[in-house]
């Protein structure tokens, strides 16, 4: 590959993929490769492949990462706000619970697909969990294939 290779979506022509762009596309719930197709067919159910570029998305393994990051971010945003609200205005406990649980629920509802999309983008950019260019390059798949059946 020459050093003058043009910049393309997903990194440079030499095989590097931009983690930043892939994460950003995932956070916008778009395909990490082309940035055009949607990656979700419902709230957090991932499509089998991108409608625009054909990227197979079924190999992702987000697992428990998105809920963890969602709770971490939402908790760090909402709890300090609620503590300041309590300190300055002294609302009744019922109102505190109503407002804080509503805000926390809305933040989690909005953030969960965003963090899942970002994690799928990171996995694609790093060629993890079935996102490698060649099946031979997928180290994790080759390790799983070598495990003896019990």
TrEMBL record:
InterPro entries on file: DUF983, Znf_TFIIB
TM spans (from-to): 95-112
Signal peptide limits: none
Keywords: Membrane, Transmembrane, Transmembrane helix
Pfam families: DUF983 (PF06170)
Domain of life where this protein originates: Bacteria
Occurrences of domain TFIIB-type (ranges): 27-58
Record's protein name: TFIIB-type domain-containing protein
Provenance organism: Aquisalinus flavus
């Amino acid at each position: 590959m020459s050093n003058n290779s043009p910049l393309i979506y997903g990194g440079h022509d030499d095989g590097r993929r931009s983690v930043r762009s892939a994460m950003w596309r995932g956070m916008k719930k778009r395909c990490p490769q082309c940035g055009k197709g949607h990656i979700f067919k419902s709230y957090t159910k991932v499509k089998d492949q991108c409608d625009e570029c054909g990227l197979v998305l079924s190999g992702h393994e987000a697992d428990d990462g998105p809920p963890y990051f969602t709770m971490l971010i939402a908790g760090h945003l909402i709890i300090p706000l609620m503590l300041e609200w309590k300190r300055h205005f002294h609302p009744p406990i019922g109102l505190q619970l109503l407002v804080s649980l509503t805000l926390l629920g809305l933040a989690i509802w909005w953030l969960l697909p965003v963090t899942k999309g970002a994690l799928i983008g990171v996995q694609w950019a790093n060629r993890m969990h079935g996102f490698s260019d060649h099946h031979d390059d997928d180290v994790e798949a080759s390790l799983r294939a070598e495990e003896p059946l019990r």
